[in-house]
Every structure is written in structure tokens, then in C-alpha cells.
């Protein structure tokens, strides 16, 4: 019960619920004011304008939010006027529906915010079909009042932002820490759960994308605000938390270990990994708790459990050495030591977040220069050439726009020919459910139908219990607020609440609520069926055919990240910024590849060509990013020796192998080779350097010099990590090349 109450509190304090209240307030005020002034007949148009222009109000920079709402207002007014003037003439209306649907849905090429403005435009088109206005004066007056409603919502959004200026950022930070905490716990399970590694790895791919998505929005919000007007003290704190969350994410990524090697080293001694696993689990739970406190504003939890677990992890290294004995224990001890160092760094970042949240004065300032910070922003281009580039059947959005256009025109003609009472409900279901990918459309269709049935059942129960219109009004309003609050978190539940709200609104117009419920359910099923069938049959966009460009970008960014890490090894102070930028781009490219793979898993089994091969490529690419991050992380946090010639030879070999993988998609590929003998010789020399240091340490122990100084320890750690990771990366790149060549021959060329 206590946990459920906590979750309820977190929801009621969330920015999602705040957004629901914002829309509810925006709708309730004009209804109330115009009723009191005796102009209630104008209220519906104003409310429609308010409702239509809410979707573009999402977290991000204030400038982009305002621009999105203003564009949305203009677009919805124009579309409403066109549809209302076209309605008396069926051929003209069909042409208008087709052109508007295609053109407006194509705006989604400009990113997520643009897709929400596009949705507002499509929604305006559907609502205009439901509106009955005959004369030009009535139409223009309706459009003007909708414009007033849109501007009113912009004012409401501004007021709410002033009342709670950091709510969206806090929610995003909270979501990010929650996801990272879950991600850390999932990655920890990979260490010892040998039989469930594939399952946990797939879960981690989903979390990776969500984390990258949240961090990108936070970068836009916090760094753009900083560029515009400098930072307030609170924004400084938020930026510190963001930077620490990015560092934690990279650290977790850097510890995607060679699990086969771990299994081979520890074999019968897996119990010595339990302390490290327990520490990561405690840190993951601590991050989750900190994420909750960003919303709850409660007391920071005690850090004793963290420090105790860290001490246990350190002690496990000694216990391992005492049990297995040197020199046999050296390799395992170095693995445990590297793992411990990584977890110690994780704990440092968690403690930074703790100090920031506790308002500790000594917390370090953010030293990122303004000109540097702007390089970390991935800004959406809004130029015409982006639209032109997507004007092709190769574009997923273009195919979706054509598919949606055909589905909308077909749905309208179906309603017209069979004289369906509320055709616009079918159209509404189509635009709400239909997505570029078949899997997501099918999932939303299922959720929409189930949600509608649940909502209808609840509405029937309430209608049977009471015939009170005041109860209907209250329930319609409350369910609408909660629907908007939940639409991103639980679409099925939101669909139930929207159904309840619509049924009770219509109950004011038509006292026979059962007729309304019946039509609502039937129209939803018809609309969902049209959406799913259209996605399957009309210019289907199977993810296996869209994967090539995403994969090419991941290979390119992997190579650039590898070369940036080489530069970091040469001169850490000079190349820190370029390394961080390359890391960000590699992580984003991997996130996009993971997302593409997730969409592939939602497609019908018959359309998932070479699923195992694609999964192999995704996991190899992911492992490469993590292995590179591990080297970069070690260089960033340790005093290292100069990069050896052998290291540079292997970097060149791995980079060329990645380039060959990239080129394998072209018929005119140019293979730049590093002699096999040269690479193998470099590999042997790197391993030989570690062996030399290891032998020297054995000799010192034999002579009685058992104390291990920090310099020797770091030298052993560096030699071991560089030798093993470079060998690992070379093997991964060669396997990736073989896999991409098989991919080209089985998928691209067929």
C-alpha cells in the first residue's frame, strides 16, 4: 500500500499530470467565463481552438515551444476554413482531405515536435468535418474563435511555466535517473546470469534509446536556455545533474565486458563477482530513489549502504587473491580491480548528484564553455531541402503520408456511402492509431480497441446508476484531464478515459447514452481495422528495408569514436572535447540502431528477414561502442603511458575493417588493408607488454617484494585493459565485417 501511495504521489506531482491540468484549465475557463457572460454559444469554438493547439506544448526550449504553438494555431485555422468551405462539394472535399492529409503528415520529417503540430493539423481537419457551419460569415467567425482559443492556450502554457518554471526539466531529470538506475541493474545481471544474457541485452537496448532520448531533450532545454540568458542557480544544479547522468551512462556503457572471458576466468569462482553485482544493484536502486526525490522533495537517503557495498567489493579482490593465489589469480584480480575502479567512479558521480540535490555549497560549478556547449546540441533543421530529400518512396515518412491519405479518403467514402452517423470518429481513430511502422500501429490499435471497450463498459455502468447531467459533466472533465496526463505513459488507459469523456459530452446532446456508446465502439473498431490493414497492404514499410542507412551511420560513428579515442590517448587535455562529441554521436547512432531493431521485432514474423543476423550485427555494434568507451573511460580517469606504436597499428587495422564493413554496401568498394602480419605482430607485442609486466611482478614477489605500489598497479591495469580490449575490438570488427557482408548478400542485394 505504501508503494502504491508513493507512485500516486509521484504521478500527481509529475509534469504529465501538470499538462493534463493545464489543458483542463484551458478548457474550463472559457466555458465558465463565456457562460457567465451569456455568450456560451461561442465557447465550443474557443474550446476546440484550445484543445487543438495543446499537442505542441512539450518539454524543450521556450522559443521552440512558442513557435510550435503559433504555427499550430495558423495551420489549424487554415485547415478548418478549407474543410468548412469544401464540405458542400463532395469532389472538392475529397481533394481537400487528400491534399491536407498528405501535406500535413509530411511535416513529421522535421522531428517529434513537428509531428505533434502535424497531428494538430490532422485533428483540426477531422473536427472540421463534424462542425456544421453554412455561411461564409459563420465559417470565418468559427475560425477566428478557434484562433482566440489557440492564443488563450499559449497564455495558459506561459502562466503555468511561470508558476512552475523547472517542472518539465525536473521531470526529465527524474525520468533519466530512473531509466539509468534500471539500466545499471539490467547490465549488472549480465555479469552472472549466463542463461538470460540475450533477454537482458534486449531489455538494455530499449532502455538505451529511452535514456538517449531524455538526455537529448535535456540538452536542448538546459543548454539553449543557458546560451540565451545565462544560468540561474537552479539551472546550474540541473545542468550538473544532467552532466553526471551522462557520465554515469557512459561509465555503464564502458563496462560491457567480454562475458565469455569473464566466464572462462572465474569459472568455479563466480561468488567473487557477487560483491560487485550487489554494489551495482544498490547504486541502481539509489539512482531510482534520487529520481523520485526530484519530484517528491523529500530527504536524501543515507549513503552508508553505498559505502558499505563499495568496501565489500574492494574486499572481494583481496579474498579472491587469498583463495586463488598469484600468479593464477592475477588476471581475475585485474578484472575485479578494473570493475571496482569503474564502480568507484560511478559512486563519485552519484555523490555529485546527492550533493547537488542537498544544496551542498562546495559542489563544483559547471565549467562547460558556451561555444563548446552548443556543439552538444542536436538541433533539428527546418529548411526546405529536408522536405525535398524525403519526397521519395525510399522515405518512411513519405510512404506513411501516402498510406494515411488513402486510408482517410477511403474511411470518409465508406462513411458517406453507408451513411454512418459519425464518420469523423472513424477518421479520428485512423489518425490517432496509424503510425509509420506496422508494429506500432497494430499495438496502438489493440490498445485503442481494448481501451474503448473498457471506457464504454464503465460509462454504461455509470449511466445505469445515475441519470444526473452534473455527474456526467464532472466525470467528462476529470476523465479528460487524466486522459491527457496518461496518454504518453499508458495509451490503453488514456483511451478508456477519452471514451468516457466523449460519451458523457455527447450525453448532453443525445440523452440516449447507449446509442452513443454503441456508435463509439463500432466506429473505433472500423477505424482501427482500416489503419492496420492499410499499414500492412499499402506501401508497407517493413523495418528490414529501412535498416541499411541506420546501420551505415552506426558503423561510421563507431569508426569516428574509435579514432577520437586514439587522439585522446595521444593528448587527453587537448582532445577531451572532440572525444566527448564523438562519444555522444556514437551513442546516438547506436540508440537509433537499437530503436530500428525494436521496430523490426514488432513486424510480422514473415517480414523479419534474417532476424538473427540483424540481431548479431546490432549486438556486435553495441559491444564495439562499449569496448571503445571502456578504453576512453580508462584514459580519462587514469594517468596513462604514451600510446604505443602497436596500439596505433591496431587502431588503424580496426578502423579499416569498420570502413570495409561500411564499403561492403557499395558495389565499388575500396578495401584499405593493413597487413595481417603487421596487425597480429602488434597484437602480440601489446599482450607481450602485459606479460612482461606480469613476469616482473612475479619476480618481485619471489624476491619478497610483495607490496604493490600504485604505479605498478596502474601499469598492469593499463597494459591488461589495452591489450585485451584491442584484441577484443579487432575480433569484433572482423566479425562485424563478416556479418555485414552476409547482410548485403542476403538482404540488400535481394
Question: Can you offer a commentary on this structure?
Answer:
The protein has 750 residues and is an all-alpha fold. The protein folds into four domains: 1-164, no CATH class; 167-366, Methane Monooxygenase Hydroxylase, Chain G, domain 1 (Up-down Bundle), CATH 1.20.58; 393-541, no CATH class; 545-748, Up-down Bundle (Methane Monooxygenase Hydroxylase, Chain G, domain 1). It has helices at 2-12, 15-37, 43-52, 62-86, 90-105, 112-130, 136-163, 167-192, 197-229, 233-254, 259-266, 274-296, 304-324, 330-357, 370-373, 384-389, 396-417, 423-433, 438-465, 469-486, 491-509, 513-537, 543-570, 572-602, 611-637, 645-663, 676-702, 710-748. Helix 18 (423-433) packs across helix 22 (513-537), helix 20 packs antiparallel against helix 21 and helix 23 packs antiparallel against helix 26. The chain is elongated. The two termini are 57 Å apart. The relative contact order is 0.07.
Number of domains: 4
Biggest sheet details: none
What is the residue-averaged pLDDT? 84
* CATH topological fold name of the largest domain: Methane Monooxygenase Hydroxylase, Chain G, domain 1
Low-confidence stretches: 226-230, 370-374
Q: What series of H and E elements makes up the topology?
A: HHHHHHHHHHHHHHHHHHHHHHHHHHHH
For the terminal residues, how far apart are their CA atoms? 57 Å
Approximate helicity band: over 70%
CATH class of the largest domain: Mainly Alpha
CATH second-level architecture of the largest domain = Up-down Bundle
By DSSP, the count of extended strands is 0
Helix vs. strand class: mainly alpha
Shape, please? Answer: elongated
Strand content: under 5%
Radius of gyration computed on alpha carbons: 29 Å
Task: Enumerate how many helices there are, as a single number.
Answer: 28
CATH superfamily of the largest domain: Phosphate transport system protein phou homolog 2, domain 2
